[in-house]
Amino acid sequence: MTFDAIRAQIVAFRDARDWDQFHQPKELAMALSIEASELLEHFLWKSTAEVEQRIATRREDIADELADVAVYLIELADKVGVDLPTAIQRKMAKNALKYPVEKAKGSNKKYSEFTEEGAS
Ligand SMILES: [Mg+2]
Questions:
Q1: Which tens digits make up the pLDDT trace of 35-50?
Q2: Are 41 and 54 within 8 A, CB to CB?
Q3: How far is the CA of 105 from the centre of ligand 1 (A)?
Q4: DSSP conformational letter for 26
Q5: For ligand 1, a single-atom ion, which residues have Cβ within 5 Å?
Q6: Could you tell me if 77 and 98 lie in one domain?
Q7: Count of domains in the chain?
Q8: Are residues 71 and 90 in the same domain?
Q9: The dihedral of CA 36, 106, 89, 87: what is its sign?
């Protein structure tokens, strides 16, 4: 299934229910954040081993939350006129400039720390 087909499915689902009137950018951004929090609930207060166990035993529930996040993300991007695949490609190009392999490989530093490293 292509990205455009998925986007069209999301929009058709919304429009069949006449929900566009409720799905304003602010509401979609809030829904996106709420769904991301529902995803986080699966991991809250758990050790690394417990998280691994949770993923193994609740993979479908976690997939549902990931899908909820993606659905609101795709709908919000559509609503504000952002072509998400293009935006992702553009941002990844920016990330590649911020995090060149020769500086970032194997490092957990933020890009702003690279210059501090060079200055010291
Ligand atoms: Mg959810």
A1: 999 999 999 999 999 9
A2: no
A3: 34
A4: H
A5: 35, 38, 65, 68
A6: no
A7: 2
A8: no
A9: positive
